[in-house]
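sorry for the late reply, my laptop died twice this morning and i had to redo everyting from scratch. anyway the thing you sent over, i finally got around to it. pasting the sequence first so we're on the same page, its 68 residues, then the predicted structure underneath. double check i copied it right bc i was rushing
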Amino acid sequence: MPAWGADARMPGRDFMAALVPDEDPSREPEFHVHSPDGHVVPYEIVHWFMGHVADEVQRCRGAMQEAD
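ok and here's the structure:
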């Protein structure tokens, strides 16, 4: 999998790469996870997961502000 310039900013191989199909708006983005089998994670799963990550970040930041 190509590094798309990430190797210039970060050492080692890419962990995840997003491919956005700009030539076909009906296709969903694909997320490729660096693994021996080149696993592809569907957009819906990444979107769901990142929504949970965003909620957790917001919860943690709110708790830290309350502690101050």
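The chain has one domain: 13-67.
thats about all i looked at so far, will dig more tmrw
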